[in-house]
């Protein structure tokens, strides 16, 4: 039986295929309509195939981007951080480490990551304004405790250079969490995201956009870029407008000598002009995933981000959230400063007013950009009307009074919130920290001999606070649960009387649409 079945199957397979007759009206009798239908089917199939390939390609690009993203741990962030405020804040750090591909691009000496550039980008609540505040690398600041690679924490340091925070732990990737802690302590602003880009990533991005238009006020020589060269050398940058990318772009933003007084302050001006041109170039191409993905892929291998930006979707989504900020409403300022010998000191009275303005979502030109409806006697631009009455806290002046703030509760960010209120009223906050115990019911203001009058001035911002004399010199506040439940007039003062960006900082601000050849040096 089995053999006969096989024989019949073989004969059936060898039989000629039946001839199919064409039906009337088919491709043979309708002047080629069938051929046209076949062509359309083939075209549709090709189109579908191309779409599949495009989608697969985009998917592969996203997968590749995800695989290349480096993330630093959030466990190195301070336990006492500022509360979430208006808008959002992104800390951008430029590292000059020589590790990896950076060695060929002229990074710093050794494999220790150093922050050559840093600015805090405040994105206002309306999503239509932004301001970047640059920190000179030689600025003298206080650095709070920071986590080391072995898991231990450093002691706080005072009056040290800003860029030394990034070197804590002496690793090739640097210590972005320590720099973030330092910025939060200095500003009282909560940093929502931190991004570190090294030389290699910067170089690739400038190449990916096809170069960035820049300008120089004079010719620049090899000896200006490398003062140790011993001779002037050849011209490496002509005077005037030009387009740079890759190594040339790096040389431009690193250039310090030969222009103005050769300081880091002058270099910051050129860096702000460069970032302005880069933003303008990207916007001219259109802010959408198809243009942003190649840029992200170009930079991501040389980029380190916080966990909140740790995926391709998060990175692209964040970039897309900036698309409605036009060039004129993108501002650049430098933290108010003055020279202190060979270093830079912060002018705290002006800097504190700047941080207060950003916490209140006030723009450089004094407008409310929170995106929230305005009430009361404020005009259309969000400024106070002439008949606005001040709250009790508004009449308090903390000029000349220094205060240390401690959080005596388990409420996160309380010390930073109080510090912000104190700075708004003109007090100098020498530091914030967590108290030795967190079970304080009432706020306590401790003061040294002869400082009771100043302590009473402080107490006006903290209703119900107890005054306590101590043997230590200085004034300290240990916040209790009473302040957490009812922050008192200080908070209402900061909301009823919004502070403005200091006039000196506002007058020196750069917009992203400014002339690229203007204001490129200092001294």
List the helices and strands and how they pair.
Elements: H1 2-14, H2 33-68, E1 70-71, E2 88-95, E3 115-123, E4 130-134, E5 140-143, E6 157-161, H3 176-187, E7 193-198, H4 199-208, E8 212-216, E9 220-221, H5 222-225, E10 235-237, E11 240-244, H6 246-254, H7 264-285, H8 289-300, E12 303-305, H9 312-320, E13 330-334, E14 337-340, E15 343-346, H10 348-359, E16 402-407, H11 414-424, E17 428-434, E18 444-447, H12 452-459, E19 466-469, E20 475-479, H13 481-485, H14 489-496, H15 503-507, E21 510-511
Rounded mean pLDDT score: 80
Uncertain residue segments? 1-15, 17-32, 49-60, 101-105, 375-394, 491-497
Q: What structural class do you assign from the helix and strand content? A: alpha/beta
Sheet with most strands: 8 strands, mixed
- Helicity level: 25-40%
Largest sheet, spatial ordering of strands: 1-12-7-2-3-4-13-21
Q: What does this molecule look like?
A:
The chain has 523 residues and is of the alpha/beta class. Helix content is 34%, strand content 19%. It has 15 helices and 21 strands. The longest helix is centred in the N-terminal third of the chain and has 36 residues, at 33-68. It is globular, with a radius of gyration of 31 Å.
What's the quick description here?
By secondary structure, the chain is of the alpha/beta class. It has helices at residues 2-14, 33-68, 176-187, 199-208, 222-225, 246-254, 264-285, 289-300, 312-320, 348-359, 414-424, 452-459, 481-485, 489-496, 503-507; strands at residues 70-71, 88-95, 115-123, 130-134, 140-143, 157-161, 193-198, 212-216, 220-221, 235-237, 240-244, 303-305, 330-334, 337-340, 343-346, 402-407, 428-434, 444-447, 466-469, 475-479, 510-511. Helices cover 34% and strands 19% of the residues.
